[in-house]
Amino acid sequence: MTAAAAAVAETSGLSTPPPPPGPRSKKLTPLFLLLPAALAMLVFFVIPIMTLASTSLMQGSLSTGFRQTFRWSNYGEILSEYYPQFLRSLLYASLATLMTLLIAYPLAYMIAFKAGRLRAVLLVLVIAPFFTSFLVRTIAWKQILADDGAIVHFMNNTGLMWLFDHLGLTEGRVLSTPFGVILGLTYNFLPFMVLPLYASLEKIDRSLLMASGDLYANSWTSFWKITWPLSLPGVVSGTLMTFIPAAGDYVNAELLGGPSTTMAGNVVNNQVRNFQYPASAAMSVVLMLAIVLLVAFYVKRSGTEELV
After folding, report:
1. CATH of domain 84-302
2. pLDDT digits (tens, 9 = 90+) for 39-94
3. How many Å apart are CA 100 and CA 87, to the nearest integer?
4. Core-most of 24, 110, 131, 185, by most CB within 10 Å?
5. What does pTM read for this prediction?
């Protein structure tokens, strides 16, 4: 500011503008902006994970107290005893994710491209199940999948029950079988697949589809060359948002399954009820590491690191 400008500002009553921030202030500004997120990660992620890992290496009981002995054999014991439930969790979650994708993609496509003015109404209907309790929704399926229910009658009349019996998914009935648990997982996590898919499909530039039509591409070619690749971010996001919570779920196996369909989440729940905290923590750590490795492998193989 020149002397003349300063004199004018002084005579007019205006204060001198503050000096521009120095180089040190510019460097500290991003750190201050990241501080809330860092604190949230520390409180809600790092500390719980460290506590869980520490508990998994403890030894003792509720009467004698738990002490840290770095007992690594907890992991060996939990895996040798409960590996069927562990593998079953990954299998059920994978099948439920596949079924969810097969149902959700046409639904999201129809809402994004064909619904018109009904788009908002259909989106509300997709998330409408969230207005009720997760537990209530799952209990309702016990009536739907009952032996005298419509689904069992349909499967018996169409021969699907015979097919699923030979695949080991049903036993002449749906309730208390692997298929019942997978159906429950599919229903409860369907909105987690529909919403990311809709978000990706809705953002697709319609002029690209019109251009493919001008170039004499049929509907299938337009879908495979344009719509499907551009919707992959939604596919990857929806797959992860469905598989991860489904693998750790235990409510569907508890209410819709039987003794032969228990999952890793049921093992954790039972161990906590019996006050076996180190064993439950060890099972949780193993399941979490397995999910992280599978997700990393899936993202790497699909070549969509930049999409998620």
Report:
1. 1.10.3720.10
2. 999 999 999 999 999 999 999 888 888 999 999 999 999 999 999 999 999 999 99
3. 20
4. 185
5. 0.83
